[in-house]
Amino acid sequence: MCHNFVNTDVSFVPRLIDRFQARQRTAFVKLKLFEGTGQVKIKAPEGDFNIAFFDSITQREQLLFPFKVVDKINQFDIELEVNNGGMSCLAKASRYAIAKALCCFVSTDSIEKLRLAGLLTADKRVKERKKPGQEGARRRYTWKKR
């Protein structure tokens, strides 16, 4: 859904919008991306937050990294709706959603930059299951000779 106009009123200057969803392990993120001034709004089950929702600076940098790659910092507003998962998984899922949504607003050269930075590839890894007769997914029980 690229370039949807929010309001059809002629007197209103339209803001371009794109929506995208992403997953990372158990984390689930819904994203709305607007042309704007760089505001970040995060809706979590605990309440509404800004970018301070992510405790670590590295997680905040991950959130904004797609904008740095295409040189569009402070040109888009972000609304995130986050569910489940840990903070690092939410940050990675948000980064992927932002990168995919940015593809509707930037040139093909910028899309290639995003692809080369590895931002358009989803990380589909999940936890390996525990096997019967073992302590965990790979760990065996201690072997005793006698």
UniProtKB/TrEMBL annotation:
Record flagged with keyword Repeat: no
Keywords recorded for this protein, A-Z: Ribonucleoprotein, Ribosomal protein
Signal peptide, first to last residue: none
GO BP: any one term: translation
Entry's Gene Ontology cellular component terms: mitochondrial small ribosomal subunit
InterPro entries according to UniProt: Ribosomal_Su5_D2-typ_SF, Ribosomal_uS9, Ribsml_uS5_D2-typ_fold_subgr
Keyword Ribonucleoprotein: yes
Any Pfam family hit: Ribosomal_S9
Organism superkingdom: Eukaryota
GO molecular function per UniProt: RNA binding; structural constituent of ribosome
PANTHER family xref list: RIBOSOMAL PROTEIN S9 (PTHR21569), SMALL RIBOSOMAL SUBUNIT PROTEIN US9M (PTHR21569:SF1)
Family: Belongs to the universal ribosomal protein uS9 family.
Protein name: 28S ribosomal mitochondrial
Protein's organism: Brachionus plicatilis (Marine rotifer)
